[in-house]
Amino acid sequence: MQSIARKAALSQATAYRHFPSVEALVVAYHEDVMASLAEHGERSRKTGKELFEHQVARWVKLQNVHGPVIARFSSQRGFLERLQCGEATAALSCSAWDQSLRGVLIDLALPDALLNVARFLHNALFAPREILDLTKTAGLPDDQVVRRLSDAFYGALTGWGSR
């Protein structure tokens, strides 16, 4: 927290007054990123896969800026467990992604009952750490990351839905 306070030009006491721990600060940071993604989706007039890919493109751009922090402090618990326990960040993720995930289910002629599966698969494929790996380590341009991960998501969801 001392290093963060110094970089933000705040006293350590001021930083602790707003955030009791580094974890609390990172959660607030992640929530802010998710809220901006949710707003981005709400402003869009797109639907179905088009909306999903619009959101994915924004998410990839956000990871280029915020991903290192989010990935470094990612929860050790699975997404569905965090959602079931009412974790705020997991709930915010649903508010940012559910409209586009439901649109993908409709476009793929899959039942809405697969929403939790779509959430799970989305979380696994589009994790900040994995996006950074593709953009920074593999050197893929953002549009290729969007295309390849979206296609993998559609295939995984279709495969899961055919069981």
From TrEMBL:
Q: Where is the signal peptide?
A: none
Source domain of life: Bacteria
Return the PROSITE patterns for the record: HTH_TETR_2 (PS50977)
Q: Which InterPro entries match?
A: Homeodomain-like_sf, HTH_TetR
Q: Where is the HTH tetR-type domain?
A: 1-37
Which is an annotated GO molecular function term of this record? DNA binding
Note whether DNA-binding occurs among the keywords. yes
* Keywords carried by this UniProt record: DNA-binding
The answer to whether the entry has keyword DNA-binding is yes
In its UniProt entry, what is this protein called?
Regulatory protein, tetR family
